[in-house]
Structure to design on (224 residues):
């Protein structure tokens, strides 16, 4: 499963890029606005920091003609850009147009299997199933993810299922169990994937024992 960072913060992208395990970045209008930077500037810097990664950048219009103009403009910025499109009628039409032109897309705000099916039919590169927001209102967000993975595999669609609105490491575990293709998450959630109290206590014991023994990796053997 690919790991994407969900952010518009350049410093966060710089940190995770150093780990060498992150495959892409997803942005949205809220995250870009929060960054305080210009849209194009931010997207290009993210592409620079994560060469070869898929970088999702979203259109903000809701009528087809304007959405198409925005999409073509954004796609021209860099070959790594994936056009993010909301799951609305004009959005599905746009995805079909962009797919026919060889432009990759990420259909966002998908909550149900029928929505995911329409995205797949239109040729979406990524289908972003939101889980946390469904959980927030008492539902089971991961249920639609499981159904979407099964649908994509059963019918042979090329779309990849992207688990979005990830709130905690357990969502990542569930995404892996569902055989989702991608999970995208905030920086704080991604950092939590490293954490376990037994890792911390185990490492402390190893290092304490090493120090008590007075050992060094770089010590020289004595010559008799």
């Amino acid at each position: 499963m690919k790991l994407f960072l969900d952010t518009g913060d350049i410093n966060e992208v710089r940190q995770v890029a150093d780990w060498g395990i992150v495959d892409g970045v997803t942005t949205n209008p809220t995250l870009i606005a929060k960054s305080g930077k210009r849209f194009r500037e931010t997207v290009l810097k993210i592409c620079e920091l994560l060469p070869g990664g898929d970088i999702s950048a979203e259109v903000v219009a809701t009528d087809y003609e304007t959405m198409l103009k925005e999409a073509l403009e954004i796609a021209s910025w860099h070959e790594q850009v994936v056009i993010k499109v909301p799951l609305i009628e004009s959005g599905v039409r746009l995805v079909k147009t962009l797919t026919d032109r060889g432009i990759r897309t990420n259909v966002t705000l998908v909550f149900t299997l029928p929505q995911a099916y329409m995205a797949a039919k239109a040729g979406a590169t990524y289908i972003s199933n939101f889980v946390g927001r469904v959980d927030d209102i008492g539902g089971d967000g991961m249920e639609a993810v499981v159904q979407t993975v099964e649908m994509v595999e059963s019918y042979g669609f090329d779309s990849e299922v992207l688990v979005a609105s990830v709130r905690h490491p357990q969502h990542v575990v569930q995404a892996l169990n569902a055989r989702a293709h991608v999970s995208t998450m905030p920086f704080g959630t991604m950092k939590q994937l490293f954490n376990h109290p037994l890792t911390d206590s185990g490492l402390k014991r190893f290092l304490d024992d090493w120090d008590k023994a007075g050992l060094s990796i770089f010590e020289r053997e004595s010559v008799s």
Q: What stands out?
A: The two ends are 55 Å apart (CA to CA).
